[in-house]
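chain below, 251 aa
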Amino acid sequence: MSGIIIKTPEQIEKIHAAGKILAELYADLKTYIRPGVSTLQIDSYADRFIKKRGGFPTFKSVAGYRNATCIAINNEVVHGIPRKSKIIKKGDIIKVDCGVTLNGYIGDSTETYLMSGADDIAKKLVDVTRKCLEIGIKECVPGKRIGDIGAAIQEYAESNGFSVVTEYVGHGTGVHLHEDPPVPHYGTHGEGELLTEGMVLAIEPMINEGTYKCRTLNDGWTVVTLDGKLSCQVEHTVAITANGPKILTLF
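prediction:
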């Protein structure tokens, strides 16, 4: 457990304060994101929103990255760079990933927005991915192991005919954006790091319509599905407490 930062109840509340800004942002974006809006406009909105509430967009502190958000659409899995030329269309799946630093503590989460006109497979993929997150969070109790989180997510995704991205995983968070331990969204029950009170984890399943395999585009950031089929992601920052999981990126 040498690399894992165990948080005090006071620190967890500070992470929650940062996470609440994200929760408010994502609620606001429900009405802002619509066909015709560019991903750069969404990013600018998020940047202003966070700063107005006294926070800092955490992703801007990542080396080589200039934006407040990563926005991935349809077959893009993660790390999509917001662009003026990328316009939201009817039927799109839009994944907005964002971090907020407030008074030195970080909340990290991803919300998915499904535009009207989406087909049945897109709707099912979004529903299953949300359920995967919910199922993974239920495993976040003292005495369980990291493998229990991944196994639960993988079983549900695959039972619905989808695949789990293995190249990108969840992680500890709160003091730094990315901390130990890594949290794969696949695995074996009873294996991996023991979950203990005070751990704070970002659980962020990436679920694909087709193959789990991905590739990175020439921009060096945007990851897409290898077969061009749809991908979905949702994420929460979760504290492991004696009373069970506490989601820190909700109101």
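The longest strand covers residues 93-102. The chain has one domain: 9-247.
thats it, cya
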